[in-house]
Amino acid sequence: MDVIVLIGRILFAFLFLTSGYAHFAQRKTMAQYAESKGVPAAMPAVLAGGVLLLAGGIMVLLGIWADLGALLLVVFLLPTAVLMHGFWKETDPQARMMETVQFSKDTALGGAALMLFALFSFAGDDLGLTITGPLFNIN
Asked: What pTM did the predictor assign?
């Protein structure tokens, strides 16, 4: 089971690591997009989002307080779903469909990250193939 969870962590973290990198490499474009969506302090928000994505992704990937890493991803994903993908505001059917997909993706990934938090916190050191055990214990 340890190897299966490790493979899952690698596949899960890949999205967040590449997105976190993009938050820094393409920060100007992302900040303009965030500003167009009404996000206050768009540039600091983009950079903070990049930190959450990279820190959370690395922590989940390497198993360094992976439970905390999963929570960091939740902290990014759920507000992003609401602030950036407000499908209910769209009047154009194609734009509404695209934002609905993005909103659903972010909320689903947030749910998956919450489940990972619970798994890491509950399994503790028994999970294996991690650098540290969990920070939290929900037994």
From this structure: 0.95
Residue 119: exposed, middle, or buried by beta-carbon count in 10 A (0-12, 13-18, 19+)? middle
- Domain residue limits at 69: 2-127
Residue-by-residue DSSP string for 6-42:
HHHHHHHHHHHHHHHHHHHHTHHHHHHHHHHTT-SSH
Count of structural domains, the chain: 1
48-81 b/e with 16+ CB inside 10 Å = b? Answer: ebbebbbbbbbbbbbbbbbbbbbbbbbbbbbbbb
pLDDT digits (tens, 9 = 90+) for 27-55: 999 999 999 999 999 999 999 999 999 99
12, 116 Cβ separation under 8 angstroms: yes
